[in-house]
Amino acid sequence: MGGNLPRSAEGSIAKKLRAVKNGAVARKISKGTYKRIANRANYTRVIGLALETETEELLVIYRPLHENEYELFARPASMFAETVVLRRKPVPRFQKINSEN
């Protein structure tokens, strides 16, 4: 950031910006079943959101619904919610197909 702000103020501002970004992304993601658009056979169930304590990055914790050697996956929420290009069209990386109550 720079400028004349004390180092502690810079850290505080960065922390607030991360919190705002995390909040905006978190509102887009909720528990339920999602289809990974890039791979038609992959469905996942979002279990919840977690905070990576060192970087304060928001992570999506999800379980694959297809056979896999791992029980759970974690992906940065910003990546989970992002749009990717598939066949020259922007599409969501994961598309929600039903909600969990």
Brief summary of the model shown:
With 101 residues, the chain is an alpha+beta fold.
Task: Give helix % range.
Answer: 10-25%
Taking the sheet with the most strands, its summary is: 5 strands, antiparallel
Poorly predicted runs are: none
Distance N to C terminus = 42 Å
Strand order of the largest sheet: 4-3-2-1-7
Number of helices: 2
* Beta-strand content: 35-45%
* Classification by helices and strands: alpha+beta
Question: For the CA atoms, what is the radius of gyration?
Answer: 16 Å
Mean pLDDT: 81
Tell how many strands the DSSP assignment holds. Answer: 7
Could you spell the SSE succession in H and E letters? HEEEEHEEE
The global form is globular
What keyword list fits this structure?
single chain, 101 residues, alpha+beta, 5-stranded antiparallel beta sheet, two-stranded antiparallel sheet, globular
If you had to describe this structure to a student in words, what would you say it looks like?
It contains two helices and seven strands, in the order H-E-E-E-E-H-E-E-E. With 101 residues, the chain is an alpha+beta fold. The chain starts with 6 loop residues before the first helix and ends with a strand. 11% of the residues are buried.
Layout: helices, strands, pairs:
Layout: H1 7-26, E1 32-36, E2 43-52, E3 57-64, E4 73-76, H2 77-80, E5 83-86, E6 89-92, E7 94-99
Antiparallel strand pairs: 1-2, 1-7, 2-3, 3-4, 5-6
